[in-house]
Write a structure and sequence with these properties.
401 residues; globular; six-stranded mixed sheet; 14 helices
Length: 401
């Protein structure tokens, strides 16, 4: 990814869905103006979701997702249908491609039902208009031909109108600081830190602070005490990697607001209140309970990995219980959550906001408490109230001390 590229998690995700041989991949290629997907007369050519980052006006940076036919049959077909349904969890809007020579099938109607169930804005594209008999289209549908290009420009314009982009933008940290203030960012450089670069939340925080007219001062936890002493005035805020929460809390003066990248990211992704509410479930864990620790990214696990080593160790030490720990990463999130007593998720920087909210909703529907890394680490270290001090409305959710 180039320095000027918008991260995938920050792009609108547009999913193209349809039955096999509806010409879905051909429509995707026509919309993107390139051979993004292999097309063939053979049903089921697209066997796995194919994604492409691009600019689509008036929406701007988007991710186009071409999915396998959801009417596939057989064991492999069922897996492809499952993958297609998973895409719904991260689709900000959807295009249902229908074979115009056949019309709406039962499978198409089932997909429309899923769009409505998940509150996904959608439109229907009736393909193959070059060979189909003109018929009255359902309200809001678009007639297109991937072969001749008929209706493709209208389809692109209609996609652009599916999702509002003129609403208030969500800030990571910039809305909590004033121009001229200083924010100290504490970034440990250990074996788990990516070599030669900063992780996405750290990059986003720096950019957001600069756009606010404030100053970002970056230091390691080992130099934090000296850094604070050298400042003429206390910083407006200290933001730390959650793994260093305990040390940073001890070093940072109590009058200086303190939080973590993970907590800011939970707010940015829209599930901070649920994470605060869910963390109390830690005190209810019993011997033998299973906890799911989930990450939105996939990376090589280090010996001191936060998700598979540090958080499990902190949990067992805090609860003094024999807990069963399971993990998931990337786009792999369990369909059945019933066996878990708690889900602890990362900040979700590599997942778009819709997927993070969908995961939280799946947990809520199953009655499973859902929290995140930063909230959990602050809680087991006894500093949750301080870490939420910049969010007065959330402090009211905590038990009184």
């Amino acid at each position: 990814m180039g320095l000027n590229a918008t991260p995938s998690a920050e792009r609108l995700h547009i999913g193209f869905f349809g039955a096999r041989n509806a010409g879905k991949s051909s429509v995707v290629n026509a919309v993107t103006g390139q051979q993004m997907s292999v097309v063939s007369e053979v049903k089921g050519t697209t066997t796995d979701p194919v994604t492409k980052s691009m600019e689509l006006l008036p929406l701007g940076p988007v991710v186009i997702i071409d999915t396998p036919g959801f009417d596939d049959r057989g064991e492999l077909g069922e897996l492809r249908v499952k993958r297609t349904r998973q895409i719904l969890n991260r689709a900000d809007c959807a295009v249902l491609v229908v074979d115009g020579t056949v019309g709406l099938s039962e499978a198409d109607r089932e997909m429309i039902h899923l769009f409505k169930q998940k509150s996904i804005p959608y439109l229907i594209a009736f393909n193959k208009q070059d060979i189909s008999t003109p018929a009255e289209l359902p309200e809001g549908a678009v007639a297109v031909s991937a072969k001749t290009g008929e209706g493709i420009e209208e389809l692109k314009n209609r996609i652009g109108g599916l999702v509002r982009t003129d609403g208030p933008s969500v800030r990571l940290v910039g809305d909590m600081i004033q121009p001229g203030e200083t924010v100290v960012l504490v970034i440990p450089i250990d074996s788990s830190a990516p070599k030669g670069r900063l992780i996405l939340p750290q990059q986003q925080a720096i950019r957001d602070i600069l756009e606010s007219g404030a100053s970002a001062l970056v230091t390691r936890e080992t130099e934090l005490a000296d850094t604070l002493k050298k400042l003429k005035e206390p910083p407006a805020l200290v933001v730390t990697d959650s793994q260093a929460f305990k040390l940073v809390d001890a070093v940072t003066p109590k009058e200086v607001p303190l939080t973590s990248f993970s907590i800011l990211m939970a707010r940015y992704k829209g599930f901070l209140a649920q994470a605060v509410e869910g963390v109390a479930a830690i005190d209810r864990l019993q011997d033998g309970d299973t906890v799911l620790i989930s990450e939105g990214c996939t990376h090589h696990r280090q010996c001191e990995d936060i998700g598979t080593v540090k958080i499990p160790n902190w949990l067992r030490k805090y609860t003094e219980k024999e807990l069963q720990i399971e993990t998931s990463s990337g786009l792999g999130f369990p369909d059945d959550l019933s066996k878990y007593r708690l889900i602890i998720h990362c900040g979700g920087c590599m997942l778009n906001g819709r997927e993070m909210v969908d995961r939280q909703k799946c947990a809520a529907d199953a009655g499973i408490p859902f929290t995140n890394y930063g909230i959990t680490i602050a809680y087991v270290n006894g500093i949750l109230r301080r870490s939420l001090g910049i969010f007065p409305e959330l402090l009211a959710m905590l038990p009184k001390e």
